[in-house]
Amino acid sequence: MKQLTVLIFLLLNSLGSFALDVSFSHCSFNSQQGPYLESYIHVIGSTVSFIDVEGGQKQASVEVLIIIKDGEKIVAFDKYNLHSPLTATTVNFVDQKTYLLPSGRYTIELEVRDNHQEGNEVKMNSNAVLEFEENQFGQSDIQLLGAYSKTDREGPMIKNGYFLETLPFNFYNKKASKLAFYLEIYNSDKIVQEEFLVRYYIDQLGDNSTKKTVKLGHKKRMPKAVNVVMLQMDIQGLPSGNYFLTVEIRDRNNELLSSREVYFQRSNPFLDTKNLAEVATEDEFVNELDSASLVYGLKAIAMHISARDGEVLNMILKERKNKAMRGFLFRYWAAKNPNSPKLAYERYMEVARAADKTFESGFGYGFESDRGNIFMKYGKPNDIVRVDNELDAPPYEIWVYETFPFTNQSRVKFLFYNPTLGAGAFRLLHSDCRAEINNPQWEVELYRDAAPESINNETNYVDATRVTDSFTRRARRIWEDI
Question: Is 0.70 surpassed by the pTM of this model?
Answer without folding.
Answer: no
